[in-house]
Amino acid sequence: MAGPLVLWDFDGTLAHRAGMWSGAMIEVLDAHEHGHGIERERARAAIRGGFPWHAWEQPHAGVRDWWGPVEARIARAFTELGVAPARAAPLARAVRERYVDAAVGWALFDDTLEALRTLAAAGWRSAVLSNHVPELGELVGALGLAEHLEHVFSSALTGYEKPHPEAFRLALEACGNPALAWMVGDNPHADVWGAEAVGLRAILVRSEGAARLRAPDAAGAVRVILASAEGSPTP
Fold this sequence. Notes:
Oligomer: single chain
CATH architecture of the largest domain: 3-Layer(aba) Sandwich
Number of domains: 2
Mean pLDDT: 96
Strand content: 5-15%
Largest sheet: 6 strands, parallel
Number of helices: 10
CATH topology of the largest domain: Rossmann fold
Distance between the termini: 28 Å
Structural class: alpha/beta
Low-confidence stretches: none
Shape: elongated
């Protein structure tokens, strides 16, 4: 029987990037459009919505060009911010290249590696299940996480965005359908509600929102999981 498993969300849970998409947009503008005068809050408003995970009810399994519509969405945000249409597409491609570059902007939370090591020492397996880009596996590897993870599941490749039940089912099946599994993430809807809807126990970390179980960080989530496995009262 497959050993116990923790499915981890990626960004906002194990790793972080300042500003996420809007942050990458501003970085690209700073590099290529000097004196652009666009503030991050305006960029954040312009890029809000329109990504595949905002339409999670609509699977996109089999779609080969995941980046095509995403780049188009970023280019549209640039034009809304006043960037010349002829410059919008090249800048959107630059955002793509910057966003998947682990050496630019991405970093692990201070407790991430220790949390994964503690789980492994207790006989638990870990995998990432994230609404993310096709290059998530390479990003995870470049950040030094690969050796601690059994699998990396990106919605861009599976075609199912959390909280779609199939996102969780596919991950659990690939991991041997363990009898004991948890989900840990920072999004109350995608991570916690989605996991609980398919019968998983879930912990909300590093975030506010409705959740039966929560922890301040990954290390705290591990403490909750191990305490529960040992029969201690769950907070």
